[in-house]
Amino acid sequence: MEQIFGFSWSHIPEHINPVFCSFGLVKIHWYGLMYGVAFLTVYLLVIYRLRTENFKYSGDTIFTFMLYAILGVLVGGRLGYVISSDFRYYLANPLKIISPFDFSNGVQYNGISGMAYHGGLIAVLLIYIIFCYQKKINHWHFADLFVPAIPLGYTFGRLGNFINGELYGRVTTLPWGMYFPLDPTHQLRHPSQLYEAFFEGIVLFLIFWNIRKRKYFDGFFLSIYLMGYGFIRFFIEFFREPVSYATFRWGPLNLAQIFCIGMISIEIFIILTRKPAKKLSPL
Prior knowledge:
By secondary structure, this protein is mainly α. Helices cover 54% and strands 7% of the residues. It contains nine helices and eight strands.
């Protein structure tokens, strides 16, 4: 692939500045802004559904839940990363879990990097169950309101990873491979962040958004999201560069793929238990 916006396709990541702007020691990264765009996108799409479809929740209910969900994504995603990555390091340096500053060589602002999708998902599911119980909301129906909007928000999160130059893929010889500045070997690699942004984000969003008004059973969209995301992420993991600190494996599968199998299993369980039984025609 040749030139795009004046840059060679393979070298585009090397020309991206991950910092949006700076104020003294404090730097605002595109990665953080992408998270903000992701949450705002999901919120606006849910509000749109609230106003145009047959959902009886108030705007205040949606706003309150979104605040809790954002907290769950940030805290759960961070703790998930800490536990699944170099846990011994964070156990010895607990301040690094929440502190954006590095004091090893003076005072440096490095921000907080490292989030795990499955950690954020588990935290949000727990918050969602508690929230629905306290508000006496049908949790299956409430989930189906949010799920069709989630993949598009997820797209921006993966674009944030790409801008940051992190979570790049394995070495490749394919023409759309890229060089990432954080890669110490400086080899051509799969842009796996873009694979995820497209397949787990845009593709799933287009599918869900186009069938969002169909009514099968409460919990339908939650179940197919778990299946769709789990299936796509499972296979994209074969293109992602394995992180050096992730030592837990089950044969050829890594921890993320094991979680994906769990998501697909939950999807099958939901469908089997929630799908209405077909009525037999009288003889």
